[in-house]
């Protein structure tokens, strides 16, 4: 069974959700076909209305399934689609009754959809709860990229209209569409820059928002350079872009778009390349607009070289800064002797562990370590701790967590392990701990007491941190229970809100064939 982060979906639910988003894409593409072949005919209009109706129903259905506090982004996207649907329907009616002069008011209805889309993405960003400095950095980057795109929009889409003799007032309505697509393009850039936003839902939204502006440029190019081509056929592409919004809403990963971002995130390094491309675009646009003839090529080449040199320098500086920050984080979150996670990092991961899928929390205390340390010296004790950590690392997966929480105490978080695996997994860990350890000419051996808490299902809790501490106490108690009896393994099941410990005097778990390789 696959469970979402909120524990609300079963494997069957997720399979159904994946099927719905795929079917929505297939249906949307199928309905775009008559639009491509008959963009201004009855078949194309009816296909558009049907597709927009389906998108609206999907967005409203998704919003209805969510808690009240999480509905806003999807309701705003539904409002954007409702604006498109009402305008398309009204246009279909007025065309059939012969009142084409009513088209102009409908433009304002279409244009209102851009405002709803901006509000929807803004709502998603607020729910990410990003640190203010990070938000400011994103805003500056988006402003830079959008400004460069705006200059290109002016040169390619706006200026030719004005040079053709149209006044700004007469051209204002047609020009608002590329400006609206510019706004939506900035949303795509924003989502690309937000750290921690990934998955198919995010990709679908970014493609939907980011493709509209390039399509405007293609629309303009074909209208001017290939006049025999019926550019209205490209409306089919815009329809598919709207369908992507519904697919993003229906995909099971939509929760990542609004989930609070984990601590310690930073902006993606490749954004510097995007900023450099923006700088280069401005240089190219200025060179083309201000120069002509033989002076154009040298000026253009110089602008590009300077822009790319600056970008390369900043990229290398950012790389060095990111490497230094990563090294500092490693020092702050890991035990310097063994390299295992420290108690602080463990406490940050525990809430996600206890609210995630089933798993095992293993609490290990080395038996005889103090005597060994006093007899042979601290350097031998350090070698034993490092050897224990290495053996645990070989036994678990990269997605699991090994933490040193005391002098000779370790905690291991095993994600996704079945309760049936617990005895064999714990016994194998115990066997590893008891293997002799050689340091130079000296061979030593320690024992271990292992307490295991089994989480059999995702815990539905209001305070994950409190439950995480309770699970740790349960594992600690299980470990000390078996330590009093001479060491070994003690497995207990955890049930909300207290641990269900094995009866006093119960036998130790016998060794079984290990389930971990």
Describe it for me?
With 517 residues, the chain is of the alpha+beta class. It folds into three domains: 11-268; 269-333; 343-500, Alpha-Beta Plaits, CATH 3.30.70. Helices cover 65% and strands 9% of the residues. It has 15 helices and eight strands. The strands form two sheets. A six-stranded mixed beta sheet has the order 2-3-1-6-7-8, with helices on both faces. Helix 1 (11-37) packs antiparallel against helix 2 and helix 2 (42-65) packs parallel to helix 8.
Provide the fold topology.
Elements: H1 11-37, H2 42-65, H3 72-97, H4 103-128, H5 132-163, H6 168-193, H7 200-225, H8 235-250, H9 271-290, H10 296-333, H11 343-355, E1 359-367, H12 369-376, H13 378-395, E2 401-404, E3 409-415, H14 422-434, E4 437-439, E5 442-444, E6 447-455, H15 464-484, E7 488-495, E8 498-500
Parallel strand pairs: 6-7
Antiparallel strand pairs: 1-3, 1-6, 2-3, 4-5, 7-8
Helix pairs in contact: 1-2, 1-8, 2-3, 2-8, 3-4, 4-6, 5-6, 5-9, 6-7, 7-8, 9-10, 11-15, 12-13
Number of helices: 15
Biggest sheet overview: 6 strands, mixed
Number of strands: 8
Question: Helices and strands, in N-to-C order?
Answer: HHHHHHHHHHHEHHEEHEEEHEE
Protein name: GGDEF domain-containing protein
Pfam families: GGDEF
Keywords: Membrane, Transmembrane, Transmembrane helix
Organism: Kineosporia babensis
């Amino acid at each position: 069974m696959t469970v979402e982060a909120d524990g609300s979906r079963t494997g069957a639910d997720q399979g159904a959700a994946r099927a719905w988003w795929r079917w929505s894409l297939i249906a949307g593409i199928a309905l775009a076909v008559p639009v491509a072949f008959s963009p201004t005919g009855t078949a194309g209009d009816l296909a558009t209305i049907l597709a927009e109706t389906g998108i609206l129903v999907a967005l409203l259905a998704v919003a209805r399934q969510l808690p009240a506090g999480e509905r806003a982004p999807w309701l705003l996207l539904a409002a954007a689609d409702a604006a498109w649907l009402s305008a398309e329907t009204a246009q279909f009616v007025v065309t059939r009754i012969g009142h084409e002069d009513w088209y102009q008011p409908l433009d304002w209805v279409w244009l209102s959809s851009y405002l709803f889309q901006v509000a929807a993405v803004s709502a998603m960003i607020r729910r990410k709860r990003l640190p203010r400095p990070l938000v400011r950095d994103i805003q500056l980057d988006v402003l830079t990229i959008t400004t460069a795109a705006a200059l290109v929009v002016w040169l390619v889409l706006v200026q030719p209209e004005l040079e053709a003799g149209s006044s700004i007032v007469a051209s204002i309505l047609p020009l608002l569409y590329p400006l609206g697509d510019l706004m939506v393009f900035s949303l795509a850039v924003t989502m690309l820059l937000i750290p921690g936003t990934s998955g198919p839902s995010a990709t679908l939204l970014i493609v939907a928002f980011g493709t509209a502006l390039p399509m405007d440029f293609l629309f303009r190019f074909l209208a001017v350079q290939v006049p025999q081509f019926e550019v209205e056929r490209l409306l089919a592409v815009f329809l598919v872009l709207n369908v992507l919004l519904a697919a993003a809403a229906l995909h099971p990963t939509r929760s990542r778009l609004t989930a609070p971002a984990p601590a310690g995130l930073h902006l993606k390094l490749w954004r510097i390349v995007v900023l450099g491309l923006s700088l280069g675009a401005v240089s190219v646009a200025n060179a083309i607009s201000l120069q002509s003839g033989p002076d154009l090529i040298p000026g253009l080449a110089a602008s590009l070289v300077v822009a790319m040199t600056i970008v390369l320098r900043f990229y290398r500086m950012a790389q060095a800064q990111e490497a230094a920050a990563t090294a500092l984080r490693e020092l702050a979150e890991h035990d310097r002797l063994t390299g295992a996670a420290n108690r602080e990092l463990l406490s940050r991961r525990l809430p996600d562990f206890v609210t995630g899928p089933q798993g095992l929390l293993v609490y290990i205390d080395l038996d005889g370590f103090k005597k060994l340390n006093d007899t042979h010296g601290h350097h031998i004790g350090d070698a034993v701790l490092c050897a224990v950590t290495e053996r645990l690392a070989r036994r678990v997966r990269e997605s699991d967590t090994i933490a040193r929480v005391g002098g000779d105490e370790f905690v291991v978080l095993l994600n996704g392990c079945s309760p049936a695996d617990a005895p064999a997994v714990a016994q194998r860990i115990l066997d590893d701990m008891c293997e002799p350890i050689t340091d130079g000419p000296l061979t030593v051996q320690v024992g271990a007491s292992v307490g295991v808490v089994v989480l059999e299902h995702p815990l539905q809790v209001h305070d994950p941190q409190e439950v995480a501490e309770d699970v740790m106490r349960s594992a600690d108690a299980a470990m000390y229970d078996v330590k009093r009896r001479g060491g070994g393994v003690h497995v207990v099941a955890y049930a909300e809100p207290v641990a269900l410990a094995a009866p006093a005097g119960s036998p130790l778990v016998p060794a079984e064939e290990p389930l971990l390789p």
